[in-house]
Write a structure and sequence with these properties.
The chain has 465 residues and is of the alpha/beta class. The protein folds into three domains: 154 residues, Alpha-D-Glucose-1,6-Bisphosphate, subunit A, domain 3 (Alpha-D-Glucose-1,6-Bisphosphate, Chain A, domain 3, 3-Layer(aba) Sandwich), CATH 3.40.120; 213 residues, Alpha-D-Glucose-1,6-Bisphosphate, subunit A, domain 3 (Alpha-D-Glucose-1,6-Bisphosphate, Chain A, domain 3, 3-Layer(aba) Sandwich); 88 residues, Alpha-D-phosphohexomutase, C-terminal domain (TATA-Binding Protein, 2-Layer Sandwich). It contains 15 helices and 22 strands. Strand 8, helix 7 and strand 9 form a beta-alpha-beta unit. Helix 2 packs across helix 3, helix 6 packs across helix 7 and helix 9 crosses helix 12. The longest helix has 22 residues. One of its GO terms (molecular function) is metal ion binding. Belongs to the phosphohexose mutase family.
């Protein structure tokens, strides 16, 4: 059946498929997406893959949607391997292990009413707007053609233990001192994968928080990028005397870190730490960082003898550059961390293992260890809901006048004000927002730039209302 283009394009976005269950996404829709995806991967190679691996998160709608997607795939003649409940990086692992395309049913950190699909080719290679999603959208809009051959089959495989073994094999954890590790799974898939990955490590005492799988997120949103959702973990770390706190988002592909004092650790600092460890194994390697990460990241990469490549925000861009450059590692300000040895895909759990290894192989507390990687003050991401994003950006640029040292438009606009001060303004790829990130040498300098930009945005919005 054909579908309205506007409705399809509202759900099939730049990086994934995502929308309100029942209103924008239902079983019939995802069955068509499954069929279109099967046709895409089957027809672009000879011989094409013989199967698609499917995983899903803890949302109530996920099992039924995953089943409908599987029906669309097998109707196109491909087999399906179901791995059941999984984190997104566990699905990527299965795609790499089985060398086949994959589909993960999750809406990540979005509220319970949402669901979606993250798609990848064999070896966890990304499928984004420019690498397949537009083709899938077109077929869903026009109607997915039927397949004349025999339908595929559906089978089940448990890969959770293999996933844990594989991640541990990538990090030298032989010399860890005893560590008390607080983990806030946010009722998401971290509650499923953390015991499998960290549980077998005798030197680690797990201090779990919200490990019960519950797609209604009864305790807080599973979005640690919002500081409000870290509060429970910060308190838990201090109350339990933990050496470190880890927080995962809903599908557990992102990991945020809290030090022993309950203070959040910047994902840029984590990027720099992991980059240094990977460069210690491969001197002269290339590391990708997006343009929002701290400028401390490329500085530290250069100091460790590596080559830094700056990227747009978003996993499809990072993964593309990883493949083109042969980069050993990539990091984003949003706590996505990418590893060449993990098929170039992102894994928050693998990044967590690196941080635990770095902490456990020396005696300093985490706050002192991470101070080596924190050189600047930063605002974090600040979102503005605006009707005229281009007009707001123009107003901001005009107001800074001669203070602007340079501009670039790799992703939104990045404004260099000199003396270590810069900010980036960009529109969201997934939400109607204008995003601001600011970095400077001091907290006061950051606050001044944030206030300046926010005042300009408010003033323009009021004038154009």
């Amino acid at each position: 059946m054909s579908r309205p283009a506007a409705a399809v394009n509202r759900v099939i976005k730049a990086y994934d498929v995502r929308g309100l269950v029942g209103e924008e996404i239902d079983e019939h829709f995802v069955s068509d997406v499954g069929g279109a995806f099967a046709r895409l991967v089957r027809d672009e190679a000879d011989p094409g893959p013989d199967r698609v691996v499917i995983g899903y998160d803890m949302r109530a709608s996920s099992p039924a949607l995953a089943t409908a997607f599987a029906e669309g795939v097998v109707a196109q003649g491909l087999n399906v391997t179901r791995i059941g409940l999984a984190s997104t990086d566990q699905l990527y692992f299965a795609s790499g292990l089985l060398d086949c395309p994959g589909a993960m049913f999750t809406a990540s950190h979005n509220p319970a009413a949402y669901n979606g699909i993250k798609l990848c080719r064999a070896g966890a290679k990304p499928v984004g707007k420019e690498s397949g999603l537009t083709t899938i959208s077109g077929e869903v809009i026009d109607g997915v053609p039927s397949f004349d051959g025999a339908p595929g089959t559906i089978s089940d495989r448990d890969v959770l233990g293999d996933y844990g073994d594989f991640l541990r094999s990538l990090v030298d954890i032989a010399h860890l001192r005893p560590l008390r590790v607080a983990v806030d799974a946010g009722n998401g898939m971290g509650g499923h994968t953390t015991p499998a990955v960290l549980g077998p490590l005798a030197s680690i005492t797990l201090l779990p928080l919200y490990f019960e799988l519950d797609g209604t997120f009864p305790n807080h949103e599973a979005n640690p990028l919002d500081p409000a959702n870290l509060v429970d973990l910060q308190r838990h770390v201090v109350e339990t005397g933990a050496d470190i706190g880890l927080a995962f988002d809903g599908d557990a592909d992102r990991c945020f870190v809290v030090d022993e004092r309950g203070h959040p650790v910047s994902p840029s600092a984590v990027t720099a730490l992991v980059a240094g460890r990977e460069l210690g194994r491969e001197v002269g390697g290339t590391v990708i960082h997006n343009l929002i990460t701290s400028r401390a990241v490329p500085e530290l990469i250069a100091e460790r003898g590596g080559t830094a490549i700056r990227s747009r925000v978003g996993h499809s861009y990072i993964k593309g550059l990883m493949a083109e450059s042969g980069a050993i590692f990539g990091g984003e300000h949003s706590a996505h961390y990418y590893f060449r040895d993990f098929w170039g895909a992102d894994s928050g759990m693998l990044a967590a293992l690196h941080v635990l290894a770095a902490l456990g192989e020396q005696d300093r507390p985490l706050s002192e260890l991470m101070a080596d990687y924190q050189r600047y003050a930063a605002s974090g991401e600040i979102n503005f809901t605006v009707a005229d994003a281009p007009g707001c950006v123009e107003a901001v640029l005009a107001s800074f006048g001669s203070r602007v040292q340079s501009l670039d438009h790799l992703d939104g606009v990045t404004v260099d004000l000199g003396d270590g001060c810069w900010f980036n303004l960009r529109t969201s790829n997934t939400e109607p927002l204008l995003r601001l990130n600011v970095e400077a040498r001091t907290d006061d300098a950051v606050a001044a730039i944030v206030e300046h930009v926010a005042t300009d945005i408010r003033a323009h919005s009021e004038r154009s209302a």
